[in-house]
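Suppose you are handed a protein chain with no further information: no name, no annotation, nothing but its sequence. What can you learn? This example shows the usual starting point.
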Amino acid sequence: MTNNWQIISEVDQELAENFPELDPIIVQLLANRGLKTQEEIDEFLYPDYSRDIHDPFLFKDMKKACQRLFEAIKEQEQITVFGDYDADGVSSATILSTILEKLGAKVDVYLPHREKEGYGLNQNAVAEIAKTGTKIIISCDCGISNTAEVKTANDLGLEVIITDHHAIPEKLPEALAIIHPQIEGEQYPFKYLAGGGVAFKLAQALIKSSDLDQAEKEKTEKWLLDLVAISTVADMVPLLGENRTLVKYGLIVLQKTKRIGLRAMIKAAGIDPEKIDAVTIGFAIAPRINAAGRMDHANLAFYLLKETEEIKANTLAEELNQQNVQRQRLTEQIVKEAKQKPIDLKQSLFIFYQEDWPAGLTGLVASRLLREYNRPCFVLTKTEDGNIVGSARSIKEFDISKALKANEQFLKRFGGHPQAGGFAMDPEHLEALTASLQKSANEQLKDQDLSAILEIELAVDFEKINWSLLDILDQFSPFGQKNPEPLFISKDILITDLKKVGKDQSHLKLQLVKKDKKLGAIAFGLAKLDLAIGQRIDIVYNLSINQWNGNREIQLMIKDIKLSTSSS
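A reasonable first move is to predict its three-dimensional structure. Written in structure tokens, the prediction is:
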């Protein structure tokens, strides 16, 4: 698919003059991220745990939640932590259960089955939990939309503490306490914590209120940050503000994690612990945790994160690794099957349906198809109970959550965000839902150019690419949502060497020259382009470091190439 190149507008001169001590490139990149005050810039460039991590008791219900939990600990009342089946939810449940156990609580953990129970609290689970003698349910990474289920819990004599970060419903559940940064009237200053971040704030408050000595409090809090980093990166919340600080310090802890199960997972994945960064979490650690819930049950990942015996941890890690391999293989197979289905390219929204696709993989497949077609993509399958379930992924011009809300008459349940959602329905409504969604998308997107957009941060003179620029970029890591790895553009670059590489010869390895500057580059997936030595090209790229045999050199990671139309 053809990409549109869009260069972000240059920062205004007045802003640059306000920070004369900063390299103009740094000022531009900061402005691109909406960071324009001294306080915002200091927090971003120099994150400080003692300064930038907010007091958990700024949450209006935090004191109430802690008081009730300490009462339960004193009376040895059963507490059940109710999580979710993804990496954020599993990490959240691990954070809270770990701290409650350390403080002497009687704790059980309940993670729902993705296909059989779906997301969030459900009536059957609440009833089963009540039978165990539980007095308090703590939801993590879910609960804010479960008004009916919380009422059921209350009716059964249970109290509910909600920790969540998802979209706020019109009516809040009648919970004992709600720890959620975005509910109306909430004074907590940072609004974009992941589920694991919110769970951590409750854990942090419990630690602060405990009888542990100060040194033990600090140590206990610090060693939770590996899971906070995993949940924050995995759930793709903005890596700015407090999230950036949590991840920055969390990566340090993750590289030295004391969790035997997590170390086993890292080893099984072939990861060098000292080189773990946000990319490692996003592409190696989080997918493995997610694989448990996608392929069978999230309990496998939870048990691994909690495991304290090395032999057992290695066995669980290998099992999880195999599930991840199976997940990758099935995803590729389903994507291939989906792309073979007939689609009408005149439509602005595509729906792919096959009865035997695993429900746990529909979101992954929808994401892959979105990248392929750059249109809203819905991937549907049928469950054992005869319902159709689906996942959707969208471009920013089409709001999935609004589209599902507008079609709720066809749906049994639905939820999500503007660019991602899920739902369940009776098969009899499939045709009507398809027609309605496509009509809505066609109307909303009829004047839109649906080519994929590459948002370029800065035009860089090729001959000025140097180690100082790499040092600047290092200050901006870890990269993630709202803080992407910067894309640069350079023009009129000469190809002096070119060859196809990779198992399927789908990548390009190039030598590029302009004036006296010569750099190597790799272009993944771009071997189909008709290029030749001696041509001049314009390139969009990230900068990276290529290390081999003890040598280090700057390497361009090219995202797109066009033939130059003019020379300079």
